[in-house]
Amino acid sequence: MPQSSPESSYEFTRAITRLPARSIVDGLRAEDIGDPDYAQMLRDHADYVASLQQAGATVTELGALEAFPDSVFVEDVALCLPEVAILMRPGAESRAGEVEHMAPVLRDLYEQVVAIDGPGFIEGGDILTTSREILVGRSARTDSAGIAELAAIVKHWDYHLREVVTPPGVLHFKTDCSLLDAETILATRRLDATGCFEGYRVIHTADGEEAAANSIRYNDLLVMPAGFPQTQERLLQAGYEVHEINNSECAKLDGGMSCLSLRF
Ligand code: CIR
């Protein structure tokens, strides 16, 4: 891997977020458990941005895009590596147009921006960059052609990409896992059982707390969704500095901590 140190997979200086649109009530979801409360979502979003700032991020907060209900989940439209930003090609039709709104933002911040042209599809939520490789889970949103195109792009910067599988019924690969440090992954048992993390240290989410798996390590801070006490205890015991954010509203749309930002 070309990154300057193993820590550079979780040491960042910047983040991009986007304010939730009121149209979020029309956002995609696997199961309808009610519409998100917009006012609560705005409060949670502000807490999320503040915690990234507390962790040292300079945050670029983009304006809401009413035409794209799921546009708050910026992670899915790009992969930000230290050397290059790669615009994704979302498998969800209603999200495809979000990419052109992110492109100029990344062109301002990066010297090199390239795009997945297709015909394959790939969403950022299926990509976990670790200190040694880029893991990409094939899912309902990300196919082998999209993964192959990304592999060909990142090879230029000497990244090794490994195609793995997102378990059926799980939206994205990172719905079920997060990078905790250069050696360690937080993952659900069901994802770890696929064998994709061989060679890493894995901390499992507690049974019934699978939704805690979508957390983010940003410098010294581990930002996790609130309400998962057993998993939180495991992370504290392992020595991580944990910060909880209410995620009740984004969870109604299958979204979590990683989805809400691009970090680089
Ligand atoms: C979607 O289905 O696309 C959104 N409702 C949720 C996206 C969550 N993003 C992510 O896990 N990276």
CATH superfamily: L-arginine/glycine Amidinotransferase, Chain A
Helicity, in percent?
Answer: 10-25%
Low-confidence stretches: none
Major beta sheet, strand line-up: 2-1-15
Mean pLDDT: 96
Instruction: Quote the CATH topology.
Output: L-arginine/glycine Amidinotransferase, Chain A
Secondary-structure element series? EHEEEHEEEHEEEHEEEHEHE
Number of discrete helical segments: 6
Q: What would the principal axes of the Cα set say about the shape?
A: globular
Topology of helices and strands:
Elements: E1 14-18, H1 38-54, E2 58-62, E3 78-80, E4 85-87, H2 98-109, E5 113-115, E6 127-129, E7 134-138, H3 144-155, E8 161-165, E9 177-179, E10 184-187, H4 189-192, E11 201-204, E12 216-218, E13 221-225, H5 229-237, E14 241-245, H6 248-251, E15 262-263
Parallel strand pairs: 1-2, 4-5, 7-8, 10-11, 13-14
Antiparallel strand pairs: 1-15, 3-4, 6-7, 9-10, 12-13
Bound molecules: citrulline (CIR).
Which terms summarize this structure?
264 residues, L-arginine/glycine Amidinotransferase, Chain A, binds citrulline
